[in-house]
Amino acid sequence: MYNDSTQKSLPYELFIAKENGKYTGYTHSWFLVNGQQYYGIKKVKVRVAKDGKVIIQDVALIENNYPVPPDNVSQLNVLDLAGSDTAPAMDGPFVTNRTKVYTELTGRINVKKVSTASNSVLIEYLTKNGIESNLTVSK
């Protein structure tokens, strides 16, 4: 995840599950403020647009260590599916909404599929909290 404002790349994890023909998922993102690392885990809605773009939109913030509440900030990703059948990837812009406190942020998301056996904070969180599904792991 590349943030245009800070000009920094930060880790971003994405889980997508398909159940009964509908996609859902979770994200785990990090950011730095004054040298301190913060994280947020969110439930997201996932859909595939008619043009093939993968639209990922925040639904709810389910865990975080933010120093102050995020004031209803949500993120929208519009990603192109790329790569190959053996190494799929998604890439595209993201934008957050503007609030009374925060301006909108923009940037770019680039995720690739990795093994569910990989070391992942998001996998650990979902497992620990009993969230079970047939998940595809992307980092």
Beta-strand fraction estimate: over 45%
**Radius of gyration from CA coordinates:** 15 Å
Number of helical stretches of at least 4 residues: 1
Number of domains: 1
* Rough outline: globular
- The share of residues in helices is under 10%
Strand order of the largest sheet: 2-1-9-8-7-6-5-4-3-10
Give the tally of β-strands.
10
Overall mean pLDDT score?
Answer: 86
Class computed from helices, strands and strand pairing: mainly beta
The major β-sheet equals: 10 strands, antiparallel
Distance between the termini: 10 Å
- Compressed to H and E, one letter per element, the order equals EEEEEEEEEHE
Indicate the low-confidence ranges by residue numbers.
133-139
Describe this structure in words.
Helices cover 6% and strands 55% of the residues. The protein has 139 residues and is mainly beta. It has one domain. The chain has a 10-stranded antiparallel sheet with strand order 2-1-9-8-7-6-5-4-3-10, with helices on one face. The longest helix is centred in the C-terminal third of the chain and has 8 residues, at 121-128. The termini are close together.
Topology:
Layout: E1 2-3, E2 8-9, E3 12-19, E4 22-33, E5 36-48, E6 54-64, E7 75-83, E8 88-96, E9 106-112, H1 121-128, E10 135-138
Antiparallel strand pairs: 1-2, 1-9, 3-4, 3-10, 4-5, 5-6, 6-7, 7-8, 8-9
